[in-house]
Amino acid sequence: MSGHVYKSIEITGSSTVDTTDAIRVAIAKASETIRNVDWFEVVSTRGYVTENVTYFQVTLKIGFRLE
Predict the structure, then answer these.
(1) Helix, strand, coil shares of the chain as percentages rounded to 5?
(2) Domain 6-65 carries which CATH code?
């Protein structure tokens, strides 16, 4: 029986919409260059407020299966 081995990295996505969108943006971008992305874990959430726009930032740990 064989098991899987994963590598994890930390990335941060941002959005002006909400935190869920920031997560989706981060995973979509990472998936462009990283194969076998299988899971994510939210490490931190923060926001940045200017006069008219609020930015949401979510730092994720993503795991991808090694081939």
Answers:
(1) 20, 50, 25
(2) 3.30.1660.10
Residues in the chain: 67
- Here the tokens at position 54 are 């609020």
Say which residue the tokens 């979510």 belong to.
58
CA distance 64 to 30: 10
Domain ranges of the chain: 6-65
Taking the model in full, what pTM does it have?
0.86
Place of tokens 């730092």: 59
**What backbone phi and psi angles, to 5 degrees, belong to 3?**
-105, 175
pLDDT, tens digit (0-9, with 9 covering 90-100), for 10-47: 999 999 999 999 999 999 999 999 999 999 999 999 99
